[in-house]
Write a structure and sequence with these properties.
The complex is a heterodimer of chains A (about 325) and B (about 350). Chain A is of the alpha/beta class and about 325 residues long. Chain A is built from 10 helices and 13 strands. Chain B is mostly helical. In chain B, helix 8 packs antiparallel against helix 11. Classes of the chains: A alpha/beta (about 325), B mainly alpha (about 350).
Chain lengths: ~325, ~350
């Protein structure tokens, strides 16, 4: 539709924009993750480090509809290793649907999603779970499972069918619990946790999958300021790990601009803008996508741009 | 104990210790039940007779026939019925993510019941009865899920409501069959089957059905980890790497197999599949690696005990098994409902 190959190249070129601080905080998790170069995956050359940066996820002209209501209409984007990509847009723009297409929970009606060059639709759920982890918006276990057992279910895709978790699996669970400061809660039933605690449990569970791509679906919803910062810092630190990358769906444009290396602004199932936050979060784009008149200014404290909504934009 | 622990994460509980403990307790309960009856047999005699029966010496007593050919198969049959229903209930509750699900609540038991009664009316063989019963059980669950499923979800409430409707329908079909059957002998058997009971338990029948039940329970235990994931919900199970549709179908069919086995052995037995998994979740926690063997053994013990009560409470009359289980079951069901409502509000 809207010039697919061109769109991908454009996104790829913006990935390597020099303004992005590269590999600062190293994540303390996912130490066991290993990566073999996959055949058939694209690489882009970064002018900063002259290292080859692999494209981990390639979204090619993806379209999706529930029945006759079209949700996604020709979305293209790509995620390069070492980057945290923010998916922003108004309610109903298709963010969550796109996220579901990315990890194979939904099959696109049109286009395809490539993970390291392989079509996601051809990978088994087990294979996918080892390579893409998802931190869902919410989860409601039917029965009150204990925290460590719940987190340990993240190892399912690595376990053999018989035999259950090995000592190695348990170590990974342990590390994930430690990394998220959940060690003291390990014996609590998950239904007794606070919202912030349960969010960390979901992140810990995703970490035990040892996937190198993590998708965060509105991870800071209903969290207080401290937890919002912690989760965002975590997401960024994870994406900085060698070979890893992350995608985060966000409503808070300020945090998106501050923590993400690049943004994709969805509107009505299409990509309205993509690239570095400065290029995406412009007054015009915000007025168009959200119908809100806003001031975009650079914060003296963080150095990132901030969006101050003023009023509904005149139609 | 004092060394530095290499890993602090607690190993998820293992299946076999619970299975062994449950099995041992069940054996004790079953042997104890064999001593009870119109002819009271001291347990030392029971033990001697059993040893003699398996050829380990000792002389068989006068009550040898009663013990080995009547009461022992009864205890074994009761164990199979309870074990199968406990396991099937556990599987359905995980799959439907609903602590109210059970073979009798969602209609698979009534489907199986109708199938068994139909097979008797048609004069089918034992294997034929099992097959018909299983088919009808699958038919019932297909009907329930087909009607309850909306385009994108499977709402828990509508599964329970639809299940109850389908259960009533199959019960009505069974009664209809009863009304039109002329054959006195078949009629008698059908009536007794509807009431549930183990009076007809015999080695011939159990030689085929008991091993199948054991296999069913073992296979269910092997799928424990998948059931853990299914209980998280379809989306979560998928994102963690489970083939939800495929495994869900296997679990559903497996629960139908176990239900129809239970029905073919003991007729209609209500509430075991509902209460037992619920009680076991309190006892051993919601991890299916231990919940399944616990439910199987507790279910088995419960039915052995209720069957003993059913055959000894008002001698020489025998109470229908489902009457006894329901008298225990209905209050428990209401207690569970109350507890659930309390949790939702609190």
């Amino acid at each position: 539709m809207n010039g697919t190959p061109d769109g991908i190249e454009r996104a790829g070129a913006e990935n390597i924009d020099g303004s992005v601080p590269s590999s600062t905080g190293q994540a303390t998790f996912g130490r066991g993750a290993r990566l073999q170069p996959q055949q058939g995956c694209r690489e882009v050359r970064s002018p900063m480090s002259s290292a080859h940066l692999r494209v981990r996820l390639d979204v090619e002209d993806v379209g999706f509809a529930y029945g006759s209501s079209r949700i996604l209409d020709g979305v293209s984007a790509s995620l390069t290793e070492g980057r945290l990509l923010g998916l922003v847009g108004p309610n109903g723009a298709g963010k969550s649907t796109l996220l579901r297409c990315l990890h194979g929970a939904l099959r696109p009606r049109r286009g395809r999603v490539l993970l390291d060059g392989a079509d996601v639709a051809t990978l088994s759920p087990r294979e996918l779970a080892r390579r893409i982890a998802v931190v869902p918006q919410a989860s409601s276990p039917a029965f009150a499972v204990r925290v460590d057992h719940f987190v340990g279910m993240g190892r399912f895709a690595h376990e053999r069918f018989f035999g259950g978790p090995t000592p190695h699996d348990l170590q990974i669970v342990d590390r994930a619990l430690d990394d998220l400061g959940l060690s003291s809660l390990r014996h609590r039933p998950v239904d007794e946790l606070s919202g912030g605690e349960f969010r960390r449990v979901l992140i810990a569970q995703a970490l035990t999958q040892e996937a190198t791509v993590v998708l965060f679906d509105e991870p800071i919803q209903q969290l207080d300021l401290l937890h919002q910062l912690e989760v965002m810092e975590f997401a960024r630190a994870f994406s900085r790990r060698p070979g890893c990358a992350g995608i985060v769906v966000l409503h808070d444009l300020g945090l998106a601009a501050r923590f993400c290396d690049e943004l994709v602004l969805l509107h009505g199932g299409r990509v309205l803008a993509s690239g570095v936050p400065e290029d995406v979060l412009t007054r015009e784009h915000i007025a168009h996508a959200y119908g809100v008149e806003a001031v975009v200014e650079r914060s003296a404290a963080t150095g990132a741009i901030e969006v101050v909504p003023l009023r509904a934009a005149p139609a | 104990m004092h060394g530095p622990p290499p890993s602090r994460a607690l190993r998820p509980p293992r299946t076999w210790p619970v299975a062994v403990t449950g099995g041992a307790l069940l054996a004790l309960v079953a042997l104890a039940s064999v001593g009870f009856g119109i002819i009271a047999v001291p347990w030392s005699t029971v033990a001697g007779d059993l040893l003699a029966a398996v050829g380990l010496g000792g002389a068989a007593s006068d009550d040898h026939i009663v013990i080995v050919n009547l009461r022992l198969p009864r205890a074994l049959g009761a164990s199979c019925v309870g074990g199968a229903l406990g396991t099937a209930g556990c599987m359905l509750q995980a799959l439907l993510r609903n602590p109210l699900a059970s073979p009798t609540v969602i209609g698979t038991a009534q489907g199986a019941m109708f199938g068994a009664v139909l097979a008797i009316a048609l004069g089918l063989s034992r294997a034929g009865t099992l097959a018909t019963s299983f088919t009808m059980s699958v038919g019932a669950v297909t009907l329930v899920l087909g009607m309850a499923r909306t385009r994108r979800a499977l709402p828990v409430e509508s599964v329970v409501v639809t299940g109850m409707a389908v259960a009533l329908m199959f019960m009505a079909l069974a009664r209809l069959l009863l009304a039109v059957t002329r054959d006195e002998y078949a009629l008698g058997r059908m009536t007794q089957w509807l009431a549930g009971g183990l009076w007809h338990a015999n080695w011939d029948e159990l030689r085929m059905l008991a091993p199948l039940t054991v296999i069913g329970v073992v296979v269910a235990c092997a799928c424990a980890r998948s059931l853990d994931l299914l209980a998280l919900g379809e989306a979560d199970a998928h994102r963690l790497g489970l083939r939800v549709r495929r495994v869900g179908t296997v679990v559903l069919v497996g629960s139908c197999v176990l239900t129809s086995l239970a029905i073919c052995i003991g007729g209609m037995v209500a509430f075991v599949g509902l209460i037992v998994p619920h009680a076991c979740r309190r006892l051993v926690g919601p991890t299916h690696a231990v919940l399944l063997p616990a439910s199987a053994s507790l279910g088995a013990m419960l039915v052995v005990v209720t069957d003993t009560v059913a055959r000894t409470a008002v001698p020489p009359q025998e109470l229908p098994l489902t009457v006894v289980t329901s008298l225990v079951g209905v209050p428990s069901f209401l207690v569970i409902l109350r507890a659930l409502r309390g949790r939702r509000q609190g």
